[in-house]
Amino acid sequence: MNPAVDPSGGRAERRAAPKPARHPLGGSAGVSAGRGVGVLQRWLPVATVLLAVLALWYAGAVGLNKAGAIERVLPNSHPNGDWTVSDLVSVTLNMERPVLPAPHQVAADLYSSIVDWPLDSPRNLLFHAAVTAQSTLVGFVLGTLLGVVLAAAIVHSRTLDRALLPWIVASQTVPVLAIAPIVLVILGSLGFSGVAPKATIAMYLCFFPVTVAMVQGLRAPQRIETELMHTYAASKLQAFWLLRLPSALPYLFPSLRVAIAAGLVGAMVAELPTGAQAGLGARLLTGSYYGNTVGIWSALVLSALLGLALTLAVAALERLVLRRGNAA
User: How far is the C-alpha of 286 from the C-alpha of 290, rounded, in Å?
Assistant: First the structure.
């Protein structure tokens, strides 16, 4: 029986396909609302953690500054001892030399140091951030190149695998605070100063995660893929560029994000024993000499922001390279 004809001989009505449900806000408005919800879901956890950190920070500032406020400040402002809890909280959050400065004090000092002084002034924190970033980037590039070369050598030679890899792992057991003065003294005796010693310490911390990740990534291709390259009579160099290196990129970029952060720490540590006059590490050292805890925390916050900016730059480079690789 023809499904389009009913038993009485009449033509059966075809059921219309259900129309897709439209967003109540319409086409473009619905897309915008969907994007807004996605952005909210992405940043809400970050904002929640930030608010929790700020709340704990304020609570810690009150708790740590309370003893000094009761001992030094409140007796002068309230000689009769008639101060209240609100007075205590207000004093602890606005002390001139606090044990732990409040977030708004750090933000005010950071803003003042950036806005009130020229960019080339040693009082401007951006000047010190630029000095530290220069050493970090040079050490990061050198550490990345060293890590890739070592990984390629280890993957292509079993002898180097057995000889180098244990020493590479053992090198990271030496604390950077212990090795930095030695490296700086040796390089100083050889006539190297300025960026080179600090970049060397940054390179020391950068190359390890890159080496380990690249060894794993270069070994990622399966046997059938390597045999296919042999079938095409590809040389080791061609197999490296066409097979091993593209397979290693998803392993490389996460290690680069770790390496750039470690390089920043290395550059700041290298500025401490040299008594450098510029750099975030030097600013931390100067603040500790003069008991300027607000200045110390301002430098710490800016170093964290600098590390975040460098990590985001590596993440943006990762998206660009992987997108082009997928398009090709």
Answer: 7
Residues in the chain: 328
Interval 229-284: pLDDT, tens: 777 667 777 777 777 788 888 889 999 999 999 999 999 988 887 656 788 988 88
Number of C-alpha atoms within 13 angstroms, CB side, residue 239?
22
Options 1.10.3720.10, 3.50.40.10, 3.40.50.2000, 3.40.50.970; which CATH number does 115-327 get? Answer: 1.10.3720.10
Find where tokens 């890159």 sit: 210
pTM score of the predicted model: 0.79
Residue 275's Cβ-count burial label (10 Å; 0-12, 13-18, 19+) is exposed
Q: What is the mean pLDDT of residues 177-201?
A: 83
Nearest to 213 by CA among 266, 238, 240, 250: 250
Q: Which two tokens stand for residue 299?
A: 């430098």
